[in-house]
């Protein structure tokens, strides 16, 4: 079981919402309306860990170790939403999301293969780590900069925890896991983000609700994510390249191969599909 060790590791570095955020450093002159609005959207997006948790527990009924770990992940993601709401409560109370706005992102996700979802969320954590690092640079108000830096570190640790479960899956499921990870890896590392921001909250997850079946489509401002990435934090090709590099690097370590680019990974995926033993 990985859960006891992951619990211990994550608890050892856990930050305190009251005492580890430099609330007293707030500088009102450094917070624009535009920046405050974006914090509200991020607070609601983080709340989407709730439906994701319901999906994880449903699709991993046979895996009590992973399900137990999700209790830690869920707690930390809800805390991300909470710290952003606490920031707004203190400094822009009119922008605190309403309970209805939060509840709007709680909807059923269609069942999906657990291994693919695991890889999807691994890539999502890597991506969010980079988005939040950029957000910390873009924001000018010191407290929110510190909050985004704090969240970015948590997201990186979440990615590390998912990677542990991916390693375990390779031992247990072999090529079935390799195939699932390579498939989702190609998807998450290939499209230029100008086409579509590739994060779990921006993917369609319930065919019966289409097109309102992404978390982003259920925000008060469904166009927010693209504007945040393009015009605010300006997540450009260089940053996108860093995300892709981290995904390929980690999959390379996992598979004992080296992937210079997504085409390499796609070739490997096709070899797996043909049933050939990849060299
Ligand atoms: Fe988060
Ligand atoms: Fe996370």
TrEMBL record:
<protein>
    <recommendedName>
        <fullName>Ferritin</fullName>
    </recommendedName>
</protein>
<dbReference type="InterPro" id="IPR012348">
    <property type="entry name" value="RNR-like"/>
</dbReference>
<dbReference type="GO" id="GO:0016491">
    <property type="term" value="F:oxidoreductase activity"/>
</dbReference>
<dbReference type="InterPro" id="IPR009078">
    <property type="entry name" value="Ferritin-like_SF"/>
</dbReference>
